[in-house]
Design brief:
heterodimer; A: 114 residues; mainly beta; six-stranded mixed sheet; four-stranded antiparallel sheet; 0% helix; 52% strand; B: 114 residues; seven-stranded mixed sheet; 11 strands; 56% strand; globular
């Protein structure tokens, strides 16, 4: 069965610090990869997605992620975080043959101190 | 219009009540989803409708009954719920039902079962 692991449960950073959130998945076939963000009191929003092609994908709000197939990883990065990036971040995976079934990681809570 | 709307925003119901959650999208998407999210946890898939047909049921108890009257609407009928069913219920939609589409999420209905 597919699974998604996010290694950091809670990350605390100061503004302007760099961010990297880890995400690993277990599935041997072709996968599609997503990062979603959930700001306090708001709904899930798509940050970025990877389907195929360039493994370095850029998303909204200055976020990017790199797909490393050999490591089954899809880590999220941002060079300089802002207080407004405080939110819950979810990595998610679905497989082409799973009919749209999206599997989420446990989430990483990011707190950015002003 | 890139929104998924859900009503009501909040719902409190007793264990013997019957209620329904509603979800609507006008993006022309052909797949719609119900997820359940407990506090500080990732969303868990409950049901998937693809082209108005139920394509995935994640072994959800029969006290939850989904309905897709047309391609824009998705309902979740609730009956004889338990207190542990209290959660945020999220609806999502995607252009198609396969794995190669991102899902757009609504704001959710916060359900409390007393």
């Amino acid at each position: 069965a597919q699974s998604v692991s996010q290694h950091n449960h809670h990350v605390i950073l100061s503004e302007a610090a760099s961010l990297e959130l880890g995400c690993n998945y277990s599935y041997g076939g072709t996968v599609n990869l997503f990062w979603y963000v959930q700001y306090p009191g708001q709904h899930l929003q798509l940050l970025l997605k990877y389907f195929s092609g360039d493994p370095l994908v850029k998303g909204i709000k200055g976020f990017e992620a790199e797909f490393i197939k050999s490591k089954f990883s899809f880590n999220l990065r941002k060079p300089s975080v802002q207080w407004s990036d405080t939110a819950e971040y979810f990595c998610a995976v679905n497989a082409n043959n799973q009919g749209g079934k999206l599997i989420f990681g446990q989430g990483t809570e990011l707190s950015v101190k002003p | 219009d890139t929104e998924v709307t859900q009503t009501p925003k909040h719902l409190v119901m007793g264990m013997t009540n019957k209620k329904s959650l509603k979800c609507e999208q006008h993006m022309g998407h052909r797949a719609m989803y119900w997820y359940k999210q407990k506090a500080k946890k990732p969303p868990e898939l409950m049901f998937v409708y693809s082209y108005e047909k139920l394509s995935i049921n994640e072994s959800v108890p029969s006290r939850f009954s989904p309905e897709c009257p047309n391609s824009s609407l998705l309902n979740l009928h609730l009956h004889a719920l338990q207190p542990e069913d209290s959660a945020l219920y999220l609806c999502a939609s995607s252009p198609g039902g396969g794995g190669t589409y991102e899902q757009y999420f609504g704001p959710g209905t916060r359900l409390t079962v007393t």
